[in-house]
Amino acid sequence: MMTLTERERLKKLMALATGDEKHDESSNSTFDVLWVLYDRVMRYAPRNPRSEGRDRFVLSKGHGPVSYFAILADKGFFPAEELRKFETWEGILGGHPDRNLVPGVEASTGSLGHGLPMAIGVALGLRAKGSERRVFALIGDGECNEGSIWEAILLAGNLGLANLTCILIDNHSSSQNLGDMVAKFTSFGWEACAINGRDHEQIYKALIHTHPERPIAIVADIEKES
């Protein structure tokens, strides 16, 4: 469980990155899942971001990446001072993650619906190599309006990508009623569950769960912070 001191430290890091206020809620909604993922689950080496022994993470929900950047800084991928340069010409951190500029970023994302398909390609590549490393992709509920997300969900289920985990952040921002996403993922050949996206123990248990023949889907419900 994240301590109050840890949460305060991360929030202070996030506060250093000012600029794109319209995506603050998008960033805040990913905060707890990303913290648990990087603090307790994923394998990575900040001093060697392209290590073959790393797990991979793709932020398909690429808008509002401040939580992501703050956690990467906290884990040592780049100096926290870079957060002060958020969305400036002098810095490496833009409004969307850029794999060519930001250490630790696996895929340049921002256009909705692109990240999950890319994560499937990464998972396929690792499987072909016989690697045991895992791939995590984080998507948003609004992003599920994109047809490419559903094509990707269908493909991953058919391929039985057991090394892939998709986390759907449902902060109730979608203009469409998504219905029962656990049932939909399951019908597409995934193992799926629903959790409280602020409860760190629920998040942790869901993230470490694997299935020998199916990809994992985690539907994380997020209540907006007051």
What's the alpha carbon Rg, rounded to whole Å? 16 Å
- Report the top-level CATH class: Alpha Beta
Q: Got a strand count?
A: 5
Q: What name goes with the CATH superfamily?
A: Thiamin diphosphate (ThDP)-binding fold, Pyr/PP domains
Low-confidence stretches: none
User: Percent helix among the residues?
Assistant: 25-40%
Describe the structure in your own words.
The protein is α/β, with parallel strands linked by helices. It has one domain (4-221): Rossmann fold, CATH 3.40.50.970. Helix content is 37%, strand content 13%. The protein is built from 7 helices and 5 strands; from the N terminus they run H-H-E-H-H-E-H-E-H-E-H-E. It has helices at residues 4-16, 24-41, 66-74, 115-129, 147-159, 181-187, 200-208; strands spanning 56-59, 135-140, 164-170, 191-196, 216-221. Strands 1-2-3-5-4 form a 5-stranded parallel β-sheet, sandwiched between helices. Helix 7 links the parallel strand 4 (191-196) and strand 5 (216-221). Helix 2 packs parallel to helix 3 (66-74). It is globular, with a radius of gyration of 16 Å. The model has no long low-confidence stretch (mean pLDDT 90).
Q: What are the SSEs and their pairings?
A:
Layout: H1 4-16, H2 24-41, E1 56-59, H3 66-74, H4 115-129, E2 135-140, H5 147-159, E3 164-170, H6 181-187, E4 191-196, H7 200-208, E5 216-221
Parallel strand pairs: 1-2, 2-3, 3-5, 4-5
Helix pairs in contact: 1-3, 2-3, 2-7
Fill in the keyword field for this structure.
single chain; alpha/beta; about 35% helix; Rossmann fold; globular; 5-stranded parallel beta sheet; about 230 residues
